[in-house]
Amino acid sequence: MVLKAGLVKRVASRFIQYRVYSRSLAKGLNMDLPALYLKPNEDKRLRAGHLWVFSNEVDSKRCRLPDFAPGQLAQILAQDGKFLGTGYVNPNSLICARLLSRDPDHLPGRSLFIHRLKIALSLREHFYAQPFYRLVFGEADGLPGLVVDRYNDVLVAQITTAGMECLKDEIVAALEKVIKPRGILFRSDSPMRQLEGIPTSIEEIGTVPDEVLLTEGECSFRAPLKQGQKTGWFFDQHDNRTALAPYVKGGQVLDVFSYLGAWGIQAARAGATKVSCVESSATAGEILVDNASRNGFDVELISEDAFTALPRLREEGRHFDTVIVDPPAFIKRRKDIGAGSKAYRRINQLALTLVEPGGFLITGSCSYHMSADSFVQNVQAAARHVDRNLQLLECAGQGRDHPIHPAIPETAYLKMFYFRVLKN
């Protein structure tokens, strides 16, 4: 949905007005919340644990969505008036409401955020020895519209909904209470904010360095926070990268879409004899080389777009024992499935031509709309096109700091597959 300029201005005006209201409400003032009624039988998904309400599920005869301001808190009620929870509403979004609390005595605000953050922190501290992980993963941590990555005492957050933007002051207060960071960087520049009718922004609270030094397994990395991709680092692949040894030890490795060298450098640490990294960004490439050096390794940097670098490597007769393909999301929306599927097939087809017979292709997708079955079929079709046979050895997903909400399949987005590649 693309909002017209006039509507954006009206939404922004109502949004600003509602922030004043929401700040008072979040601080505990006694204000009655408006009711958002659902149509008959549209409460089943919420009762099963989901947190979203779609606009076509609202009983428009009992409550008009246009009467709500973007981000406004509301009681969400079933057709019979039974309380389902408290959430925030955005009349301009297909997902018109998101649930924050199922307890009528606990309104969304500072105390609720503190409680949810403590629960989220306990999970990460149980599995990660170092304070480098995704601290909050939206719906899966009961905080829809909020993502927070932790780099020791620096946090990078993204807010993608009007509701969470209205509660931003309370989120900051909760983060300061639970984590006590020296700085918080809000990288609220996601295109999703346009769908919510809220402007993109980058805001620094406290002291936030341009880049940080993080630890992953036995390796350390520089990561740019203010100019890097998304929140600066891709923590979701942490567990997969630190478990590379069986696939790379003693072999030559090609890391495609390298960014800062996380896969390639972990492969070198795991015993690869030579690592080559394909990365088109000059800035990322410079940091990649430095990251390799600080860990005691030399890597070959191929500063070129992956779709042009791989055919050239093939023409040069290059082959590798393992090729790792961790691309960006080629399918961001459902309408991108056709073009995105072709892109996934193309890049994997190119990668397969570079794998030595008996070697490995480690490949995946971070596109929710590309199902695991569809992706495997996609790679299989690519393999047959270049006369290769595949053996699927292992499947993996996102790390434990990106937990999956069992009732919300959208929280399960990352899929990684480990193939053995054979000639006919």
Helix percent reads 25-40%
CATH architecture of the largest domain: 3-Layer(aba) Sandwich
Widest beta sheet: strand line-up: 15-14-13-16-17-19-18
Per DSSP, the total helix count is 13
CATH fold-level assignment of the largest domain? Rossmann fold
Structural class of the secondary elements?
A: alpha/beta
CATH superfamily annotation of the largest domain: Vaccinia Virus protein VP39
Number of domains: 3
Given as residue ranges, the uncertain stretches (5+ residues, pLDDT < 50) are: 1-11, 24-30
Text of the CATH class of the largest domain = Alpha Beta
The largest sheet is: 7 strands, mixed
Cα radius of gyration in angstroms: 23 Å
Q: Give the end-to-end Cα distance, rounded to a whole number of Å.
A: 47 Å
Shape: globular
Q: What would you say this structure looks like, in words?
A:
It is built from 13 helices and 19 strands. It is α/β, with parallel strands linked by helices and 424 residues long. The chain folds into 3 domains: 97 residues, PUA domain (Archaeosine Trna-guanine Transglycosylase, Chain: A, domain 4, Roll); 102 residues, RNA methyltransferase domain (HRMD) like (Transcription Regulator spoIIAA); 208 residues, Vaccinia Virus protein VP39 (Rossmann fold, 3-Layer(aba) Sandwich). The protein has a 7-stranded mixed β-sheet, sandwiched between helices. Strand 14, helix 10 and strand 15 form a beta-alpha-beta unit. Helix 3 crosses helix 5, helix 11 packs parallel to helix 12 and helix 12 packs across helix 13.
